[in-house]
């Protein structure tokens, strides 16, 4: 039988209804016969979580949460300058490298201009929660604000059984 769709959940062309799994992971030149895996995602305030795949600045996702969800372990997420009003805690429960563009430019102003804001959370909570991640995980170059420590777990960043590298942050 021939390949009917991609059954790899971390691929951008994942098909939950595929009956015969694809046998190869390839470059995406033929989306019907292979799974397309992305290992670097882009997020922008001008992005789109529904119609974009996050493969570059012009195809960026809108929310960091969506990029984390789509990323396979050990992927990189590049977050472009802007304010990201997330509507619930961003749970990072796999080893990822998440960088603002400060990581590439080393321009200090990027840190203050790349803001993750939890002030619109309906039920409070930390803005970012790292859960069960190792020191492979990196989170560099952000301002994190607007969370709630009402549950005693940290309003900005909460670490649960985790040891990520946190660098150049304003919390």
Structure commentary:
- The protein has 171 residues and is mainly β.
- 9% of the residues lie in helices and 23% in strands.
- The strands form 3 sheets. A 5-stranded parallel sheet has the order 1-2-5-8-11. The protein has a 3-stranded parallel sheet with strand order 3-6-9.
- The radius of gyration is 17 Å and the shape is globular.
- The chain starts with 39 loop residues before the first strand and ends with a strand.
What proportion of the residues form beta strands (DSSP E)?
Answer: 15-25%
The percent range for helix content is under 10%
Structural class: mainly beta
Distance between the termini: 54 Å
The strand count comes to: 11
Largest sheet features? 5 strands, parallel
Spatial arrangement of strands, main beta sheet? 1-2-5-8-11
Mean pLDDT comes to: 84
Helical stretch tally: 3
| Topology order in helix (H) and strand (E) letters | EHEEEEHHEEEEEE
Instruction: Evaluate the radius of gyration.
Output: 17 Å
Spans of at least 5 consecutive residues with low confidence: none
Based on Cα principal axes, name the global outline: globular
Helix and strand topology:
Elements: E1 40-43, H1 64-70, E2 76-79, E3 82-85, E4 90-92, E5 97-100, H2 102-105, H3 109-113, E6 114-117, E7 128-131, E8 138-140, E9 143-145, E10 157-160, E11 165-167
Summarize the model shown.
With 171 residues, the protein is mainly beta.
Pick out its properties.
171 residues, 11 strands, globular, mainly beta
């Amino acid at each position: 039988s021939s390949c009917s769709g991609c059954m790899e959940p971390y691929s951008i062309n994942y098909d939950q209804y595929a009956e015969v799994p694809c046998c190869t992971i390839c470059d995406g030149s033929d989306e019907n016969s292979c799974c397309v895996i992305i290992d670097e995602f882009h997020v922008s305030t001008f992005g789109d979580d529904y119609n974009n795949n996050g493969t570059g600045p012009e195809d960026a996702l809108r929310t960091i949460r969506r990029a984390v969800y789509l990323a396979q372990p050990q992927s990189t997420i590049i977050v472009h300058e802007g304010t990201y009003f997330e509507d619930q805690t961003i749970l990072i429960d796999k080893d990822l490298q998440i960088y603002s563009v400060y990581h590439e430019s080393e321009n200090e102003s990027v840190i203050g201009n790349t803001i993750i804001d939890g002030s619109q959370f309906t039920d409070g909570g930390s803005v970012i929660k790292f859960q069960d991640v190792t020191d492979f995980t990196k989170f560099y170059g952000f301002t994190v604000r607007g969370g709630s420590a009402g549950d005693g777990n940290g309003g900005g960043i909460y670490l649960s059984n985790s040891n990520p590298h946190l660098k150049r942050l304003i919390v």
